[in-house]
Fold this protein.
Amino acid sequence: MLDKRENVQKFLASWLRGGPLAGAVGLAVDCLWEASAPLSPLVGSAEIEAGFLVPLRRALTGLHRRDEIFIGAMNRRHERGFWCAAVTHYVGNFTAPLWGIAPSHHVAFLRAGEFYRVQDGRIVQARIILDLPDLMRQAGRLPFPFSYGLETLFPGPATHDGVCPQAGDGEGSLDIVEAMLGDLHRFDPQTLGSAGQTGKDGYWADDMLWYGPAGIGSNFRWDGFVKDHRAPFLRAFPDRKGGNHYCRIGDGSYAAVSGWPSMTMTFQGDYLGVKADGRPLTLRVMDFYRCQDGKIAENWVFLDYVDLFAQMGVDLLSEES
């Protein structure tokens, strides 16, 4: 018998290809579907199909999803209930424009972070971050003047067990992540270091891998993470406050957290070619973690940079950007 996670995963795969909305899992009549910019919130199956699925099907011929992580558990945060979370790619031949992005006429892997609240066998709420800047990169348009780290396809977990994991302590995995987040928030403004992150008793494995969105890219080990992401981000947004999460779940060796928005901050240092002007900003965030031997081994990160840069006065999806 399929468990809740597997039912939701199978429904999403079938639905994407045009399968039925009814079955063991479906969409609630008043399902709220929120995706990253430039999409507006959608309510109900008709709006969701027209505003989300139809554009994807038109743009990506042979559209299907390739899940790298798919987990589910009860939410620790105030929005209680059972939630699923996924790291996936929407895959197809990119043959028609998608939300302002011209097609490449080659295969494309549009990566996405997803959170779904499930109640009485129905998805009642969804939040999705699509890495559209990375899709632009794949199509030969560079949304940023440079990238801090390696731009690459998001790999699946090194252990190849991220889809509906069958073993591991989900609560323990989430405990590690929550402790890390609590200490990560505080940092030395000179060294940019935070207590407890590395070393024998630290939260991160020595050979940690961090996979970031377009503009940041991926990096290896703590030093690489600091150089390619943490240092430029903290110099640009030194007063950032994060952790405003609506969902935190743990399943097996995995944990996932998300805020909509998660961060508030002011723009105090230049970032990815944009001049700082001190304006207040917010940032939607999704983080997925794999833990091993009491430490975080891998971290997949989704940031709604189309929305963030719009707040900064930059339209990443425009032809002029």
